[in-house]
Amino acid sequence: MRKSAAIIFAFIISQFQAQQGAYYQQAAKYKMDIDVNAEKFTYQGKQTLEYTNNSPDELNVVYFHLYWNAFKPNSMMDQRVASQGKNGDGRLQKDGVSRLASIPKDQEGAQNIHWIKQNGKDLKFEVQETIMKVYLAEPIKPNSTTTFTMDWDSVIPQQIRRSGRNNREGVDMTMTQWYPKIAEYDYDGWATFDYLGREFHAPFSDFDVTIKINKDYVVGAGGILENPTEVKGYDANAKIKTDKDKKAAWRWTAKNILDFAWSADRDYSVESFNVPEGPKVYLVYQKNDKTKAWGESQPYITKYFQIMNAHFGKYVYPTYAFIQGGDGGMEYGMCTMILGEAKNVKDLMGLMAHEGSHSWYQQMLATNESVRPWMDEGFTSYAEGYTMYQLFPEDLPNPFVERLDAYRNFTKKESKNRLFG
To answer: Could you give the C-alpha distances from 328 to 193, 323, 352, in angstroms and in order?
Structure first.
């Protein structure tokens, strides 16, 4: 009976794979030059994108995400928050009213595309809020590469959700989902999800990003800083190199990640240490009485990565950065943005362990969070529970009892909403 079941299961899997076709992944290489006006919270962007179509399909259009267009009154995100009333996300509303509705005009998010070209030819494009549809001058055939060039400017929005200026702890710029990002194309077609304040998806990409910003700023990012001796914060012997506008140029590179995120503040301190067998970890935060736990976190972070490497597979990237920024905690390629203030090192490590564990499921496995969030959040929460139990042993019936209680409470609440909502 068991043998027959195994044969049937194998047959079903083989038929599913046959219908899906050969496995493939799209690939992208970004080269960006960014010029930041820190006083006005704006920046100019130039981008070259090499896009490789590894699918069996010929592509006649491509799509880009323009996430920051959501941060303004009457956007789809604003309407979604307004429709939820007091039951919605507290980070996006106040007293049941969407915070997006009251963003001042000069602090609305914006990504203004000046032009886009394919292999030097001008392209027509349409922007519908957070999605840009681009009509190609020539189709991208299977197993071929095309080059897009693009010029744009952006307004850094008021910090509402994950991205933006002047977060509640005084960080000047949290630069996440901040550039025109090509959408993923896979077996389900183009992943053109409007940004409503939820999760993200993208193809694996390489990045080479140069950021010009006032020399007094320190930048934290997910990637490798290629010129630490020319900028502030990373090398005690650095001689800051500036241009005529007193701006320093930060050059970051990263390979095979889903996105590139960074943050900038004049009061950042940078600490780094090596985890045995990797990665090199960076802590980028404002040192003060409310962030003392960061200074105590190094041995716990080291043990955390060692546990993850041993039990969940080795972290494949050379660096990882915990950066103070954002509105809670959100994972990105080779880094996370988290709030800096913490009661104690255990509370801080709970956040770091959760966001860090996303690197295995949201990043390395590239689960499509917009479609199957449980595949990322579920396994990430399991890894968080497992590692935190090792870091801070407690007399519990099992290391996941808090997660089980949270799930029970959630299902009870959902059942009640369905009956009486």
So the answer is: 23, 11, 11
Tell me how far apart the alpha carbons of residues 200 and 368 are, in angstroms, rounded to a whole number: 7
Q: Where are the beta strands (DSSP E) in 57-155?
A: 59-65, 93-94, 97-98, 110-118, 121-122, 124-128, 131-140, 144-155
d(CA 205, CA 203) in angstroms, rounded, equals: 6
Percentage with pLDDT > 70 across the chain: 92
- Asked if residues 66 and 132 have their Cβ atoms less than 8 Å apart, the reply is yes
DSSP 260-315: --EEEETTEEEEEEEPTTS-EEEEEEE-SGGGHHHHH-HHHHHHHHHHHHHHH---
**Residue 241 contacts residue 254 (beta carbons within 8 Å):** no
SS percent in the chain: helix, strand, coil, step 5: 30, 35, 35
Q: Tell me how far apart the alpha carbons of residues 171 and 269 are, in angstroms, rounded to a whole number.
A: 12
Q: Are 119 and 138 in contact (CB under 8 A)?
A: yes
**pLDDT for the residue numbered 368:** 83
User: 378 burial class (0-12, 13-18, 19+ CB within 10 angstroms)?
Assistant: middle
Residue 45 forms beta bridges with which residues? 34, 152
Query: Residue 353 has which token pair?
Result: 């362990």
Cis amide linkage into residue 299, ω under 30° from 0: no
Please report the pLDDT score of residue 21 as a whole number. 72
Q: CA–CA distance from 128 to each of 38, 39, 68, 118 (Å)?
A: 28, 29, 12, 21
Helix axes 298-312, 345-358, angle to 10 degrees: 40
Which residues lie below 8 Å from residue 351, measured CB to CB, with a gap of 6+?
329, 338, 339, 342
Token pair for 290: 């409310």
Residues in the chain predicted with pLDDT less than 70, given as ranges, are 1-20, 395-397, 413-421
Nearest CA among 5, 197, 220 for reference residue 82 = 197
Quote the pTM value. Answer: 0.90
| Helix, strand or coil, per DSSP, at residue 133 | strand
- Please, are residues 348 and 325 in contact by the beta-carbon 8 Å criterion? no
Q: Is 320 helix (H, G, I), strand (E, B) or coil?
A: strand
Count of CA atoms in the C-beta half-sphere (13 A) of 420: 3
For 67-222, where are the alpha helices, taking DSSP H only?
76-84
